[in-house]
Amino acid sequence: MASSLSSCSALTLVIWGHLVVASMANFYSDFDITWGNDRAKILNNGEQLHLSLDKYSGSGFQSKNEYLFGNIHMRLKLVPGNSAGTVSAYYLSSQGPTHDEIDFEFLGNLSGDPYTLHTNVFSQGRGNREQQFHLWFDPTKNFHTYSILWNPNHIKFSVDGTPIRVFKNAEHLGVPFPKNQPMKLYSSLWNADDWATRGGLIKTDWSQAPFVASYSNFEADACVASASSSSPCNGSAWLSQEALDTNEQEKLKWVQKNYMVYNYCTDTKRFPQGLPPECSLSS
Fold it and tell me: Which of 161, 162, 160, 187 is nearest to 79 (CA)?
């Protein structure tokens, strides 16, 4: 039996052959800090991770496991106050020039202005599928759950259980879909004041540094790709989900009507020769 991973209420089950080993989800066991030196810190016996940014460097981490499909959740509390110029990125990605990637990026703001939640999907090295949103709460006051459900049929982005975006498998229209390349989970906090806030008009105020983003409650009900196998796991309801239920569809419409601030599928100036083919699919 191939290695697989399932998590419920932060309980991780690792199945190998007929041996089942259970351990609590923990940043020490699930992630490696990859850059930023002591700017990235695991706290509270592995229950939280903090990334920080100063004028010298940001910081980041990545998962130890690679996933081929999954239902992944992380609770984040974003940089408070004047976070203009900063970007907190949280995403799945494979490697190489034809990489696949599923992005949440949180673009910082001036105090009192809303964060911009930027989403994108890359398949076979091609992205340019941006949708952006404002949130219906202050994401700096408390932790909120940001989720990616990725299966062979679609990719669903959710916030606190509310769907905000669905990217459907449109291979029948000639659009590549991420389904063959295992991806690790990455996160980073970095300075992007050349583009992030109002197109780079607002620069980072380093007197506010260090900027800190906080992470907790990682859960992955996901298919782990091992060196010996990357075949999908079976038996999970999320893996075969083909469409949103009626309640999810209503929530998605509410978010997109009230909080979407950019949608590449309506940007006819950007695509004068015609919108990308996947834009013809309804949510």
Answer: 187
